[in-house]
Amino acid sequence: MAPLHTFPLCRSVATSFTAALLAAAALAQSASQPPLDAIASDPAKLGWMIGSPPPHDKLIKFSDGSFRTFPQTRWAFSHLREFVPTRVIPRGTGPVSPLPRHERTDLDAVTFLPLDRKETMTWAQSLLANYTDGVLVLHRGRIVYERYFGVLTPERPHIAFSVTKSFVGTLAAALVAEGALDDHAPVTRYVPELKRSGFGDATVRQVMDMTVGLKYSEVYADPKADHWDFTRAGNMLPRPAGYQGPDSYYEYVVTIPKEREHGDRFAYKTPNASVLGWILHRATGKSLGDLVQERLWSKLGVEHDAYFTVDHSGTENGGGGLNLTLRDMARFGEMIRLDGRFNGQQIVPKAAVDDIRHGGNRDHFTLAGYKTLPGWSYRDMWWISHNEHGAFAARGIHGQCIYIDPKAEMVIIRFASHPIAANSNFDATSLPAFQALANHLMAAPH
């Protein structure tokens, strides 16, 4: 185990390399050269990776970072295991749980007012505005809407990015409810290797709710952000020649220093999810992949295997590496909406789902400055709206989402490949669209 600050060359060398990788994407997203819209960037129309071998101008690679560069991402997000190592999460041998269909033709015309505009938009228009790859709407457990765009199909997994965190947080909340994990315990009870890091005097609950005071930057538009070094350590970005930095997620998290006291404010930092996955492994003796398979995947009646991206040590990326199909993510979301019960069994304790829905400290969340999420909070790695419908969500960069509206009995699942990473860039379109759909389904339930 590497001690704190063992990798002095990581930041300077890796950051410059990241800057080079991101330069093209940043240029494409500038005001003078806006990115291609959803139609023009359609990966099927652009013909990525077709040929034997594909021509140079249609080739997407890991080694040059093009698999993380828009518009190539519109193909790569549905083919991630072709670029990085992965671990399969088997569906098991049981029967597939049915998702009854009652598709509706009236939803595309539902209108809403985006938060940053004066003109209304339709639900169908919002799908293009957010570069949707796939979207599914459940109402009262039935599929009322399902669409695929680009190269995504019902059988093809798509990366969920930080929606993964909500799977990890749900497992942790379940173990807390069962008494198998003490959320008041210090992190070091389970992972003593973190003693000298910024996590050294934090509690498990502070990790679960991301109130750990870490010196760590996660501004995706900043090529110097620590996030890119963390991503590279986890083998999700190529490394420059002579790289001598951390070789895994665990090697990286022990190097993160403390910046301020823990527990007084929410601060979204992905390494919390990696540490929580490490804690779960130590508390149960099972890897994150095994826990997802045994406690969720084998019980939900999913249609397909899922998979995790893994680092060079085989550790799953609990912060953003889960890949799964649209319908199977819908089964997980519906299970959460139904208080943890699905497919004829209680899969997650109701007390765990209640804890998620109750939310976290709203004052602590406000200090994070999310202008598009006023009044929200964060609990067990879920985003809680506290609106009149009690809606809450799992959110991932580039537009991945599970949006659960208990009052409307609605679950929305979305995969996307928006050219800009942070959700704050398209919340103005997404959140009012979700609310409008909920209101419409309640008013005209069919």
- Named at the architecture level, the CATH assignment of the domain at 111-174 and 274-443 is 3-Layer(aba) Sandwich
Query: Can you identify the CATH class of the domain at 111-174 and 274-443?
Result: Alpha Beta
- Strand portion, in percent? 5-15%
What is the CATH superfamily of the domain at 111-174 and 274-443? DD-peptidase/beta-lactamase superfamily
**Sheet with the most strands?**
7 strands, antiparallel
- State the order of secondary-structure elements, H for helix, E for strand: HHHEEEHEEEHHHHHHHEEHEEHHEEEEEH
Distance between the termini: 59 Å
| Unreliably modeled segments | 1-31
Radius of gyration: 21 Å
Query: What structural class do the secondary elements suggest?
Result: alpha+beta
Number of helices: 15
Question: Approximately how much helix is present in the residues?
Answer: 25-40%
Topology:
Layout (H helix, E strand, L loop, with lengths): L9 H19 L14 H4 L26 H4 L9 E4 L21 E2 L8 E2 H7 L2 E8 L2 E7 L9 E2 L3 H16 L8 H4 L13 H5 L17 H8 L15 H5 L17 H14 L3 H13 L5 E4 L12 E3 L1 H12 L3 E2 L2 E2 L3 H9 L3 H5 L10 E3 L2 E3 L7 E5 L3 E6 L4 E7 L10 H17 L3
Antiparallel strand pairs: 1-7, 2-3, 4-5, 4-15, 6-8, 7-8, 9-10, 11-12, 12-13, 13-14, 14-15
